[in-house]
Design brief:
The chain is built from three helices and no strands. It has about 110 residues and is mainly alpha-helical. It has one domain.
């Protein structure tokens, strides 16, 4: 039960930090849209300059955010459902250090 709570806590921390980052980005973009100074009056335009380019940039931003979310989701799911992989990586590190010590002993003898 403790491992479940700790894994859920770690997933919650990662997801909350990601949502905070996305929220800050959203607020900054909205602030920029409200305060940007165009060379002509907005009401006189049918659409804003470089509208197509801005749409493409927004689409790419959404794709980037979605890719980041999927990457975090995959890492969280793997660490939540397969906690034994953390122990496996630790065991590999220990075995690697023991092999280095053994190779050093062989060199010295």
């Amino acid at each position: 039960m403790t491992s479940l709570i700790s894994s859920l806590l770690s997933v919650g921390i990662v997801l909350s930090s990601m949502f905070v980052t996305i929220g800050v980005m959203f607020v900054l973009l909205k602030h920029r849209d409200r305060t940007v100074k165009l060379p002509v009056d907005r009401e006189q335009l049918q659409r804003i300059p470089a509208f197509g380019l801005q749409q493409e940039i927004q689409d790419l931003q959404i794709n980037l955010i979605a890719s980041m979310l999927m990457g975090v989701l995959v890492v969280c799911l793997i660490s939540t459902y397969f906690p034994q992989y953390g122990q496996l990586f630790y065991d590999i590190k220990v075995i690697n250090s023991e092999l280095k010590e053994f190779a050093g002993e062989l060199k010295n003898s």
